[in-house]
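Q: Structure tokens for this one, please.
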Amino acid sequence: MITKKEVQRIAKLARLGITKKEEEMFQKELSSILDYFIFLKKADTSLVEPTFRPSEYFLKEEFGKTREDRQETQPAEKINKLRDAFPEKEKDYLKVKSIL
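A: Here is the predicted structure, written as tokens:
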């Protein structure tokens, strides 16, 4: 069981101001949470396959490879149609609202 001193230390680290009544409540609650972890640690998981193994994912050959940059050109008529539909223009620039 967690001691009151440990509860006070945890509260201080979390910057929580707790009363004596809350201190006792947290002592019981934290102890039950830790007891549950002990219960889970004892559970037999030998027949359960992991659903994800990060080490295998990061060791794959594809991981870390970057795609090749390429420029896709659009037909000039499509570009001109988009420019004509733009509400405001100034010289060769398309004018947009300020975001800041």
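A few notes: The first helix runs from residue 4 to 13. The mean pLDDT is 87.
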